[in-house]
Design brief:
Elements (H helix, E strand, L loop, with lengths): L8 E4 L2 E4 L4 E6 L6 H10 L3 E5 L5 H18 L4 E5 L14 E3 L5 E5 L9 E3 L3 H6 L5 E4 L4 E8 L3 E8 L2 E3 L4 E2 L12 H13 L3 E4 L5 H11 L4 E6 L2 H5 L1 H7 L2 E5 H7 L5 H14 L4 E4 L14 H13 L3 E4 L1 H4 L4 H16 L2 H9 L8 H16 L3 E5 L4 H8 L6 E5 L2 H7 L5 E5 L7 H14 L8 E7 L8 E8 L5 E4 L1
Parallel strand pairs: 3-4, 3-18, 4-5, 5-14, 7-8, 14-15, 15-16, 16-17, 17-18, 19-20, 19-22, 20-21
Antiparallel strand pairs: 1-2, 6-12, 7-11, 9-10, 9-13, 10-11, 22-23, 23-24
Helix pairs in contact: 1-12, 10-12
Length: 495
């Protein structure tokens, strides 16, 4: 692939300013857990880092988080951290020979006997699953490579028929696409990992296996306001309750790999577009994830299809795109982030990209805050402002601005460190932690101009559009807009 000539970031001292709006999430694992690799990942373009609690120990994740916090100090830039909980892992038992061969039409009993299985039976160590399934329901095993149909049921077993698949080996995972399973998304392991993550101060908790609104409420009761909740949309049942789940979430992850197992793969692209658009309209950050640059686990460059896949997510208007095994365990983690950064920047430079985003802009709600935010977007474009500045205590002001998908950076200033880190995930947001409370509007304007210059977003005589809420520190009170010329005391206010 031909190298591009533009640079991915702009340096100012040890600070980094991205030249793209769509964010990159990188998963940390053995390939990237060291301080040196984390630093390289961040410089290459990773904005938010994901800790996958399906792998590694709490001690491992704690060490990585400490290094990430040190990296923040080194670059003076908030870095958001996602604690991704494992959720229920449904697996069949073992086989005496390690695996069995399958043929369509053969019968296989699934029971609670832990003894190694054979061609006639295997353990299914989930009595609640056996109780919930009925004849006619299906099970998908080994990421959908094997499909079984329930044809009969006993008190402690299921009799299934092989629909397709040729081989099944030990401990393969399975999915049940037809029904809502009577399972909480939080297992005993998840409860322990969640408590650890909250004590460590992560910004985001990603919930796996979400099926219904009650799953979110269960997690919210534990998490409170200690972290934001990200819902991973993996199950068909979640799609049936999509609008309600988005409304109750703080962010959404489109987990396309699992969706593609339990649903028809041809439905996933349109679902991706729908989820991204609905999340944007609700003002929730949204991540498109899974298999984005999968070949780079072992190859130094992506396939053309993967490049198109990442670009499609960008054109859809997503807040972020995510790398999983590519950066956690792949042979080319830094290169994967670099390629993703280049793909995103090239896509955003396409004139058609801006037209698509403008055509999909959500209608503002009938509130003063939304009216001010829409006006800020239009004003910035009209006067060729170099940035929109949002002062925010809860993140709401910045999220409203990100929903507009402006063509200029959003300088998101917060006196709360965790909020600044959360906003690192949001479209176009250059998040800055500015400790100390602002007590006057004049001080706010001066601080905005100072930070914009320090972070390389503005120069002398450039214009900024500033939005904030007065009185200061009151969450959700965006009610003021000001245009400021950097280096000038003049400006005018629209309230």
């Amino acid at each position: 692939m031909t190298e591009t000539v533009d640079v991915p970031v702009v340096y100012k001292g040890e600070r980094i300013r991205r030249t793209r709006k769509t964010k990159i999430v990188a998963t940390i694992g053995p390939a990237t857990a060291s301080m040196d690799q984390l630093r390289k990942l961040f410089v290459a373009g990773a904005d938010v880092l994901r800790l996958n609690f399906s792998h590694g120990t709490q001690a491992d994740h704690g060490q990585v988080l400490s290094r990430i916090r040190a990296l923040e100090g080194e670059f003076d830039r908030p870095i958001g951290v996602i604690a991704d909980l494992q959720g229920p892992k449904l697996r069949v038992g073992t086989f005496a020979e390690g695996a069995i061969d399958l043929t369509p039409g053969m019968r296989l009993r699934l029971d609670l006997d832990p003894a190694p299985g054979d061609t006639s039976r295997v353990c299914l160590p989930h009595p609640e699953i056996i109780e919930a399934l009925e004849p006619g329901n299906s099970l998908l095993l080994d990421d959908g490579k094997v499909r079984l149909k329930v044809v009969d049921k006993g008190s402690d077993c299921l009799v299934t028929e092989v629909v397709f698949g040729s081989r099944l080996s030990n401990n393969k995972g399975f999915n049940v696409p037809d029904i809502v399973l009577p399972l909480s998304p939080l297992t005993e392991k998840d409860h322990a990992d969640l408590q650890f993550a909250l004590e460590q101060g992560v910004e985001w908790v990603a919930l796996s296996f979400v099926q219904r609104v009650e799953d979110v409420e269960e997690a919210r009761a534990i998490i409170g306001n200690r972290a934001a909740i990200m819902l991973k949309l993996e199950k068909p049942a979640a799609i049936e309750h999509l609008d309600e789940l988005i409304e109750r979430s703080d962010a959404i992850m489109v987990a396309r790999g699992d969706l593609g197992v339990e649903m028809s793969v041809e439905d996933v692209p349109s679902l991706q577009k729908s989820i991204v658009q609905k999340s944007r309209m609700a003002g929730r950050p949204v991540i498109v994830a899974t298999q984005m640059l999968e070949s780079m686990i072992t190859a130094p460059a992506p396939t053309r299809a993967e490049v198109s896949d990442v670009a499609t997510a960008v054109y859809d208007g997503t807040d972020a795109v995510m790398l999983s095994a590519e950066t956690a365990a792949g042979a080319y983690p830094i290169e994967a982030v670099g390629f993703m950064d280049r793909i995103v920047r090239r896509s955003e430079a396409d004139p058609a990209y801006r037209r698509i985003l403008e055509g999909q802009r959500p209608s503002p709600d009938g509130t003063a805050a939304d009216a001010i935010t829409r006006a800020a977007h239009e004003t910035a474009r009209t006067i060729a402002a170099v940035a929109i500045v949002t002062y925010t205590s809860s993140g709401a002001t910045t999220l409203r601005a990100a929903r507009e998908r402006p063509g200029v950076p959003i300088l998101a200033v917060s006196s709360h460190g965790p909020i600044a880190r959360r906003l690192a995930l949001s479209y176009g947001a250059h998040a800055v932690f500015a400790p100390g409370e602002i007590d006057s509007f004049r001080a706010m304007v001066a601080k905005a101009a100072e930070i914009a210059q320090e972070h390389g977003l503005a120069e002398e005589n450039d214009r900024l559009v500033i939005t904030a809420g007065v009185p200061f520190g009151q969450s959700g009170s965006t009610n003021i807009l000001r245009i400021v010329e950097v280096g000038s005391e003049t400006g005018w206010v629209t309230e």
